[in-house]
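FORM 12-B: Structure-to-Sequence Request
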């Protein structure tokens, strides 16, 4: 909804520096639907760093903030750590801040596909599904990092715990000990995950665009992006 988008926009604006270029990075593998949130979101980010100030002013867009956007892919596709690619872009672009967008693993079934998580502590890609890669944070990049994402998967152990707890309350430590060794690494995603990713990626992109370009309305941004 518009109200939800505006809430996310406002939180992002509160965390962003007042001025300077912002680099956005869509993390994940676009070929794996539950992991495609970041790349799909990046497709809808309004990149403006390449626009000359004089040209923007002629179009009545003199207040545009410089924004750069990359899709670094994943290690298995590129042979390069995602963090290394982003670090290289940071050295070239010299942004005031970096926004990383990624699909997350939920720790509660009720949060799947309906929770937006925003943090300034950085992110470790793949950590939610037991495939942790190099950390992406202010410590590793030298500039503030804002991570934003939506849970698209839940592990089978969490799913079992939630279902048992809701049905009869028998989610005991003994039950957890018997379930987790067998199912903690099995990831579950909704059957309509393709629709979830499509909607969630556009929702996050609009919130990010509105946060980065506060002088433009959502409708104006949609028109500019065609």
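FORM 12-B RESPONSE
SEQUENCE OUT:
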């Amino acid at each position: 909804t518009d109200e939800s988008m505006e809430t996310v926009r406002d939180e992002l604006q509160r965390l962003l520096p007042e001025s300077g270029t912002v680099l956005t990075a869509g993390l994940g593998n676009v070929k794996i639907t539950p992991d495609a949130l970041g790349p799909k979101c990046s497709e809808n980010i309004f990149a403006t760093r390449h626009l000359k100030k004089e040209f923007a002013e002629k179009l009545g867009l003199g207040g545009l903030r410089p924004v750069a956007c990359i899709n670094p892919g994943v290690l298995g596709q590129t042979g390069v750590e995602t963090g290394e690619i982003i670090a290289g872009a940071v050295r070239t672009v010299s942004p005031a801040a970096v926004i990383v967008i990624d699909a997350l693993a939920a720790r509660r079934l009720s949060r799947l596909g309906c929770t937006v998580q925003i943090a300034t502590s950085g992110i470790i890609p793949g950590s939610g599904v037991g495939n942790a890669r190099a950390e992406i944070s202010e410590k590793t990049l030298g500039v503030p990092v804002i991570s934003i994402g939506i849970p698209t998967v839940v592990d089978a152990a969490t799913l079992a715990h939630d279902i048992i707890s809701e049905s009869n309350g028998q989610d005991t430590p003994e039950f957890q000990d018997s379930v987790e060794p067998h199912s903690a690494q099995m990831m579950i995603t909704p059957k309509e995950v393709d629709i979830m990713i499509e909607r969630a990626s556009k929702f996050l992109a609009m919130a990010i665009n509105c946060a980065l370009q506060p002088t433009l309305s959502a409708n104006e941004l949609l028109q500019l992006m065609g």
